[in-house]
Amino acid sequence: MNAIEVKDLRKEFKAYSSRTGLKGAFRDLLTRNYKIVPAVNDISFSVKQGEMVGYIGENGAGKSTTIKMLTGILTPTSGKIVVNGMNPHKEREKFVRTIGVVFGQRSQLWWDIAVQESFRLLKKVYKVSDAHYNDHMDHVIKTLDIEPLLDKPVRKLSLGQRMRCELAAALIHNPPLLFLDEPTIGLDVLVKLKIREFLKEINEKYNTTILLTTHDLSDIEALCERVIMLDEGKIIYDGALKSLKDQWGDRKELQFQFLENVNIEGLNQLTAEMSVKWEMDEKEQLFTAVIEDIDELISQVISKVVAAYKIKDVKINETSTEEIIRNIYEKGLV
To answer: CB-based burial of residue 205 (10 Å sphere; 0-12 exposed, 13-18 middle, 19+ buried)?
Structure first.
């Protein structure tokens, strides 16, 4: 069964332009020049019940516009949407009880009242019974470790504390489908790990479908086996994350730490006759050579560097998912 079905989905906006000069300003009062800009351009995809899917793209690619249409906030210009068997913007009151939404930049909690009071208000909004609330939310509160936060006003919480409470609030009615838009933005590593583990657990326990949009690709790698990649409102890849890495991860990263002062200009000169791209992390004093995944080339680069400099450490890493996706966008590889 599909939790989400999208067919030829399109959303257009009017982009207004202003005329120059005083005369142009007066004319703008009567008529405005505009052009039609497609934010989402005839996309089609489906998500099965229980899937965790990463929905990724650069800023302005159309991710948030898609999420707003899928959650019923925006009405599509054309195309078909069925989410949990319903049309999101036509059956809104019934529909919202079947989804949970977490927007990293916006809050669904009341700013000046205690967290648990927000939870109680949402419990009434979603018409959740006392028995169901107590049984389900006891587990959510303990797993997310927010029990000490329940008596605090939301405005006094740190960002990490608030995001854990936001996630709990989205799950009060235990929805079968969860939309997460940048849920870990600005959070420290420990809070991210806690949220990821919790999302895995609810997916396994309740078969909750999760659609995740984020710029933090470590979230995608930790949670999603499938990714949908968007560029200029169009889907340019829809498939397994592993296949994407296998297909485009044709490079290796050789990471060097040195026992002496080294500069990137010297490394560039040393490997000038080879196809090597050097990068430097000044804070960690790490030098990384990005090269094709060819055993002989890897061996030659290591040999040249070791012969020229005193080495503290060297590592061979697969190209990161972030690097692969950056290359796809920059070079149009898909």
So the answer is: exposed
pLDDT tens profile 75-125: 999 999 999 999 998 888 899 999 999 987 678 899 999 999 999 999 999
* DSSP 8-class letter at 77: S
Q: State the residue range of the domain holding 258.
A: 251-318
Instruction: Classify residue 264 as left (phi > 0), alpha (psi -120 to 50) or beta.
Output: alpha
pLDDT at 235 over 80: yes
Q: Contact, 220 vs 214, CB < 8 A?
A: yes
CA 168/CA 144 separation, integer angstroms: 8
Domain containing residue 57: CATH number:
3.40.50.300
**What does the pLDDT look like over 34-53, one tens digit per residue?**
788 889 999 999 999 999 99
Our CA angle for 8, 10, 16, nearest 5°, is 160
**Does some domain include residue 257?**
yes
One domain for residues 40 and 161: yes
Beta strands in 123-262 (DSSP E): 177-181, 209-213, 226-231, 234-240, 251-258
The domain tally of the chain equals 2
Q: Name the pTM for this structure.
A: 0.77
pLDDT computed for residue 19 by the predictor: 72
d(Cα 248, Cα 75) in Å, to the nearest integer? Answer: 36
